[in-house]
Amino acid sequence: MVNVFDIEVQARPDVFKQKEQENSVLQEKEEIEKNETIYDRTSFMTTFSTDAYLEDFYTKVEDPAMQMVLKFLPLIACRIGSIDRLLDFGAGPTIHVAATFRDYAKELHLADYLPQNREELIAWKENRSRFDWSTPLKMILTQEGSAWEQLQEMITRTRNKVHGIYHCDCFQNPSVDCPSHLHGTFDVIVTIFCVEYCCNSYEEYKNAIKNIAGQIKSGGHFIMGGILEETWCSFGGRKFTCLYITKEMMLEALKV
Ligand SMILES: C[S@@+](CC[C@H](N)C(=O)[O-])C[C@H]1O[C@@H](n2cnc3c(N)ncnc32)[C@H](O)[C@@H]1O
């Protein structure tokens, strides 16, 4: 039995409704719509641009879904309190989840399917990433009621607590390639904007959630953020498929 927190977010087309007021974003939308190709998981390896993803979602953080995640996560982390071990499953090239839990978890573990994203995570851990995380991290500090002067300390503390960066695959069991003694020992698993991009059917979605949640220790917590009722999303000027999921389908899948 595990506890479940879900972060309900708006479908990404709302991003466009908001951004359409800005000329630069209008241009981007036109570019995307001109490119009718919708990429799926078979081309993830070659089409997912780590730099474009970070640039699009984590420089200014204008996307309402991302803003919502950064708003809710610090509150959820605070409610859960002290834990031994956290895993961000499908972290992509991102460290904001780890940063949110830096003061609560003894160990932070990150996992992603794509080598280019794991390489970025390793670069960040080794302090050689060129990406500037200031904007999202300051948003987290604001939510916590912490001073922005603590930014550098936040980064150092998070970096020091990242114990492992692994390959993961939600279609495998075990779903994460961490040392075997860690399997099933995570007090908290967070997975955000991940499962619905990987799955082509509801059966796959349910199975993926089962495989991910299987790594949580008994009595632990599962925090899942995802896109509801959408069939594609875009970043880096490309469209990617997204499995259409309703809130009811998501809650049903969490019972498996
Ligand atoms: C949209 S990104 C989300 C990244 C990050 N969690 C965030 O909130 O920004 C989706 C992630 O799913 C990962 N992914 C793709 N196929 C996967 C699979 N079979 N198992 C687990 N993760 C997968 C990709 O590598 C990618 O980093």
UniProtKB/TrEMBL annotation:
Signal peptide: none annotated. Pfam families: NNMT_PNMT_TEMT. One of its GO terms (molecular function) is N-methyltransferase activity. One of its GO terms (cellular component) is cytosol. GO terms for biological process: methylation. Keywords: Methyltransferase, S-adenosyl-L-methionine, Transferase. Belongs to the class I-like SAM-binding methyltransferase superfamily. NNMT/PNMT/TEMT family. PANTHER family: NICOTINAMIDE N-METHYLTRANSFERASE-LIKE (PTHR10867:SF39), NNMT/PNMT/TEMT FAMILY MEMBER (PTHR10867). This is NNMT/PNMT/TEMT family protein. It comes from Diploscapter pachys. The lineage of its organism: Eukaryota, Metazoa, Ecdysozoa, Nematoda, Chromadorea.
